[in-house]
Each structure stands twice: as structure tokens, then as C-alpha cells.
Amino acid sequence: MTDQQREHSIADMGLLMRSAYARYELTRCRSAKVQADGYRVAMERLISQRSERQVQCMEVARGLAA
């Protein structure tokens, strides 16, 4: 997976997660909470797999690089 593909996947998981959490808040349906948690875990896994190059680019863009 390229850095760009990973970033798109992270964004997609974030949208799905927020949508599922919103459904949970509205309905208190346990399956929506479980689904949201699954999307969060998937997003966290993708984030942890970011390349060093991608992390450096993000740090530079945010003014965090030394």
C-alpha cells in the first residue's frame, strides 16, 4: 500500500467510525458501538503502519520537525 492509499484508508475508517458512533449515540444499538470500535481499531492499525517518510512529511507540514 502506498502512503497516499494508506492516508485515504485512514480517512475512510475515520468517517465510518464517526458515522457508526453517531448511530450508536442516536439508537444505543450495541452493534453500532461494536462496529465503531472495529473501525477505530482498523484506523489505529493503519496509522501505526505509516512509513517513516510519511511521518516526517506530516511533521514538516505541521511545523513539528526539528
Explain the overall architecture.
It is a single chain. The protein is mostly helical. The protein has one domain. Helices cover 82% and strands 0% of the residues. The chain has three helices and no strands. Helix 1 packs antiparallel against helix 2. The two termini are 28 Å apart. The model has no long low-confidence stretch (mean pLDDT 96).
Keywords:
66 residues; mainly alpha; 3 helices
* SS summary, helix count: 3
Determine the structural class based on helices, strands and strand pairing. Answer: mainly alpha
E-strand count: 0
Largest pleated sheet: none
N-to-C series of helices and strands? HHH
**Helix content percent band:** over 70%
Residue ranges: pLDDT <50 for 5 or more in a row?
none
Query: Termini separation (Å)?
Result: 28 Å
How many domains, as an integer?
1
**Shape field:** elongated
Q: What do the pLDDT scores average to?
A: 96
Q: What share of the residues does DSSP label as strand, in percent? A: under 5%
- Radius of gyration of CA atoms, rounded to a whole number: 15 Å
Provide the fold topology.
Blueprint: H1 3-27, H2 30-48, H3 52-61
Helix pairs in contact: 1-2
Briefly summarize what is shown.
The chain is mainly α and 66 residues long. The protein has helices at residues 3-27, 30-48, 52-61.
